[in-house]
């Protein structure tokens, strides 16, 4: 039978794009592979995915989308998107099982790859004797944090928002406990429980696929690979296959405008060589959770005019070169991808 891999992203468009890019990468190494992507929906606006899915399906025949039936949530008062997402994905397990069985009738399924929100489906993969993999689209640093999260839980009794201390997590700089992701700040919150369950599933994985390359996050990758983030359990194989960067054409927002007019700094930035300026800058959120145009302007001006900004630009150019090396023949990411695909023969 033909070979297949099944990818299972959580519903928001950003998660879907990351999984599609992973599928594209796998196809560059194994063109005969059939990539199947499971699609679910949530009871909130997670971004329109239909045009994107239609475009990928029309242009890449080897990528096939499977739309799972919509599940009905029990009555709930929560407005937290993370909790709603976990609830939907957990209730979708029987549907995932049916879809995996259906795909397995015509293909040899080498694995089910899930993102962090979809970890509950790993029990389904295990039941069907299909290797289950985690995919971390956000890099090795955040992976180290959630690798270590069960240890933090086991060694503390207060909520992180009340702990008022630095968390010393292997592989990353110390983090103020109150700066941890919002869903894990309250120990009594349902989202905290869900994040903890997902974090506990890492040691059971057949492998962790990370959107990074070794020289970009060498400390976090080394620490995680050596098992220091999971002191009392197994650390699965780690495959750094990045960088994966989705196409940005057609994605617009209002962050770079004021009263409908483009900010001078954004216009200037857009006129620069994009290859050297594609980087992320830390932004302060407002109470509503959004970043203001003024904040964007201040950060971009700092990048343009300050000595620190000059150093950031120089480092970015260096990382761009390192990324090309990692993705080239014999580079660390290409080797990791080969190891991942070769591992399928042993399962």
TrEMBL record:
Keyword vocabulary terms for this entry: Glycosyltransferase, Transferase
Name this protein carries in UniProt: UDP-GLYCOSYLTRANSFERASE 88A1-LIKE
Species assigned in the record: Salix viminalis
GO molecular function: UDP-glucosyltransferase activity
Family classification: Belongs to the UDP-glycosyltransferase family.
SUPFAM superfamilies: UDP-Glycosyltransferase/glycogen phosphorylase
Entry-linked PANTHER family: GLYCOSYLTRANSFERASE (PTHR48048:SF30)
């Amino acid at each position: 039978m033909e070979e297949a891999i099944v990818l299972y992203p959580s519903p928001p468009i950003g998660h879907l794009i990351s999984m599609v890019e992973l599928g594209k990468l796998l196809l560059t190494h194994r063109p005969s592979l059939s990539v199947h992507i499971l699609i679910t929906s949530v009871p909130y606006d997670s971004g329109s995915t239909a045009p994107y899915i239609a475009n990928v399906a029309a242009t890449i025949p080897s990528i096939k989308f499977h739309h799972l039936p919509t599940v009905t949530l029990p009555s709930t008062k929560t407005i937290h998107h993370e909790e709603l997402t976990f609830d939907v994905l957990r209730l979708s397990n029987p549907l995932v099982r049916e879809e995996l069985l259906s795909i397995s009738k015509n293909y040899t399924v080498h694995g089910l790859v899930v993102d962090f929100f979809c970890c509950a489906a790993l029990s389904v993969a295990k039941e069907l004797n299909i290797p289950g993999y985690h995919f971390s689209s956000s890099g090795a640093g955040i992976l180290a944090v959630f690798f270590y999260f069960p240890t933090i839980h086991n060694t503390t009794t207060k909520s992180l928002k009340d702990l008022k201390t630095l968390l010393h997590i292997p592989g990353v700089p110390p983090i103020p406990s109150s700066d941890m992701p919002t869903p894990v700040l309250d120990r009594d919150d349902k989202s905290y429980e869900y994040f903890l369950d997902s974090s506990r599933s890492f040691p059971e994985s057949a492998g962790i696929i990370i959107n990074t390359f070794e020289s970009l996050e060498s400390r976090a990758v080394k620490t995680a690979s050596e098992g220091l983030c999971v002191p009392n359990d197994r650390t699965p194989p780690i495959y750094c296959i990045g960088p994966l960067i989705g196409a940005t054409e057609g994605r617009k927002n209002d962050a770079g405008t004021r009263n409908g007019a483009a900010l001078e700094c954004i216009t200037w930035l857009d006129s620069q060589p994009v290859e050297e300026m594609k980087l992320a800058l830390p932004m302060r959120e407002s109470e509503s959770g959004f970043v203001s145009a003024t904040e964007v302007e201040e950060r971009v001006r700092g990048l343009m005019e300050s000595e620190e900004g000059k150093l950031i630009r120089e480092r970015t150019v260096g990382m761009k070169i390192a990324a090309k090396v990692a993705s080239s023949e014999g580079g660390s990411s290409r080797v990791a991808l080969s190891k991942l695909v070769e591992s399928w023969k042993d399962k």
